[in-house]
Every structure is written in C-alpha cells, then in structure tokens.
Amino acid sequence: MIAWKDSYDIGVEKIDCQHRQLLAKLNEFFEACSNQQGRDKIMETLKFLKEYTLEHFGDEEELMGEIDFPELTEHRKTHADFVKTVLELEEMINAKGVSVLSTIKLNRTLTDWLVNHINKCDKLIGEYMASRGKAV
User: Rounded distance, CA 109 to CA 44, Å?
Assistant: First the structure.
C-alpha cells in the first residue's frame, strides 16, 4: 500500500484529485494481490486504466496547452508510452491468460508511474504555473 503524500500534489485540484483516484485504484490492486486475488482484479484494473488515461491525460494535456508548458510534446509522449504499456499488458493477458508475471508487471508499472511520472514530471506543471504567476 502506498499512502498519498502532500508532496505528490501539483497544485491543480482537478489533476491532484485524479492522481489520488489512481493511487486508490493502485492500492486496491495491491490489496487484492496480497490476498491472492490479483488474478481476479487485474482485468478490472486494466479497464479502469484505459478509461482513466483517456480522461486524465486529456485534461492534463489541455492544461499544459493552456499554460504554454514548454515540455508538452515530451510529456504527451510519456502519456502515449504509458497507454501503450497498458494495452500491451492487456494483449498479453488476453493471449496467455493472467499470470503471476502479469500481476507483477502491472504492479511495477503503476508504482513506477506514481513515483516517477506523477511525483517528478507532473510536479513540473505546478512549478511552472507558480513560476509564471498563473493561478493553480
């Protein structure tokens, strides 16, 4: 389980709320895996991720466009790479079934996304807005 830290906030309530929603879903999946129910929860989690990424990445990219965020193109690419990873994992599960490997891969993917992307890359959006005197 990963606890939300205030340091994960970027200072944009809509985006921060979506990030907290992702963490809650990640923790649900961790808990299911801890209770030997990861196989049952993985498809639900992947379905959530596909829906989440459409809405969240769209909102985030729209915000970055509105504030002329200088790293929008690179950020958009990281979003596309994450979606590709999720779709590849779903494809692997559909072809081979759920396995310990697929549950570990999803755990690692989500944990890495939270720790590295949200806490580092997304944080830059709020910092950029604050440095430009934009309301967050």
Answer: 16
CB within 8 Å of 88: residues ≥ 6 apart: none
Distance from C-alpha of 78 to C-alpha of 103, rounded to nearest angstrom: 22
Closest alpha carbon to 5 in 108, 118, 82, 136 = 118
**Structural domain of residue 43, as residue ranges?**
10-131
C-alpha distances (whole Å) from 121 to each of 16, 32, 128 are: 13, 28, 11
Task: Please indicate, yes or no, if residue 17 is contained in any of the structural domains.
Answer: yes
Identify the CATH number of the domain in which residue 103 sits.
1.20.120.50
The 10s digit of each residue's pLDDT in 31-74 is 988 888 877 788 899 999 999 999 999 999 999 999 999 999 99
CA separation, residue 68 to residues 26, 49, 61 (Å): 31, 27, 10
The tokens describing 73, both together, are: 């193109």
Please give the residue that has the higher pLDDT: either 72 or 30: 72
Question: Is 3 within the bounds of a domain?
Answer: no
Does the pTM exceed 0.90?
Answer: no
Phi-psi region of 97 (alpha: psi -120 to 50; beta: other; left: phi over 0): left
